Amino acid sequence: MGTKSLALRFLAEPTDVNFGGKVHGGMVMKWIDQGGFACAVNWCGGYAVTIYVGGIRFFKPIHIGNLVEIRSRLIHTGKTSMHISVDVFSKKPEENEYVHNTHCIIIFVAVDKNNHPVPVPAYSAETEEEVNLQKYAIRLMELRKSIEDEMQTFY
Ligand SMILES: CC(C)(COP(=O)(O)OP(=O)(O)OC[C@H]1O[C@@H](n2cnc3c(N)ncnc32)[C@H](O)[C@@H]1OP(=O)(O)O)[C@@H](O)C(=O)NCCC(=O)NCCS
């Protein structure tokens, strides 16, 4: 069984820029996917694909040249799915105080080489914080159901 949490750290590069001079939102989404992926595959010990990315909230812009930290944390598992909470923080490399830029929940499904879902090791919440995060993941699943029912009319 792998670890529950994992962090990626790197500098935001000039090639990550948007038209306004800050980091491009699409780039942040890519980092979220990569951070979540690394956490998911470490947990399941195999390959996994993104099945859902929910409610990405960009609180504050990320500046080019800043040190970015993508903190991913497993908060719930189903039979084949892994729910990962991803928070993006950044700071000037010469300073110590991180800014919280983004939060979202991303769900991965472990798959075999034929892209069929396979069972993952069960997550068990131990601390009070972990219990609360797991409840949060379950509440979101319930909310998502009604959002998806609503959206289904249009896809
Ligand atoms: C991932 C994939 C193999 C799953 O197959 P599926 O037949 O759609 O899904 P299943 O009904 O077998 O469900 C598999 C898991 O996904 C979960 N799931 C299904 N739909 C979901 C949704 N809309 N949101 C969140 N989780 C969902 C199920 O609850 C199940 O988890 P569990 O076993 O823990 O209960 C398939 O959807 C797929 O290949 N999707 C594309 C993945 C991809 O290309 N990702 C990159 C996109 S850029």
Summarize the structure in short.
The protein has helices at 25-44, 128-152; strands at 5-11, 47-58, 67-77, 81-91, 99-111. The chain is an alpha+beta fold and 155 residues long.
Descriptive account of the structure:
This protein has 155 residues and is α+β, with helices and mostly antiparallel strands. The chain has one domain: Roll (Thiol Ester Dehydrase, Chain A). The protein has 2 helices and 5 strands; from the N terminus they run βαββββα. The protein has helices at residues 25-44, 128-152; strands spanning 5-11, 47-58, 67-77, 81-91, 99-111. It has a 5-stranded antiparallel beta sheet. The chain is globular and about 45 Å long. The chain starts with a strand and ends with a helix. Coenzyme A is lined by residues 49-52, 78-81, 107, 109, 111, 115, 117, 148.
Our estimate of the beta-strand percent is: 25-35%
- CATH class identity: Alpha Beta
- The overall strand count is 5
Task: Give the C-alpha Rg.
Answer: 16 Å
N/C terminus separation: 37 Å
Name every ligand kind in the structure: coenzyme A
CATH architecture: Roll
Listing every helix as H and every strand as E from the N terminus to the C terminus, the arrangement reads EHEEEEH
Which residues form runs of ≥5 with pLDDT under 50?
Answer: none
Main sheet properties? 5 strands, antiparallel
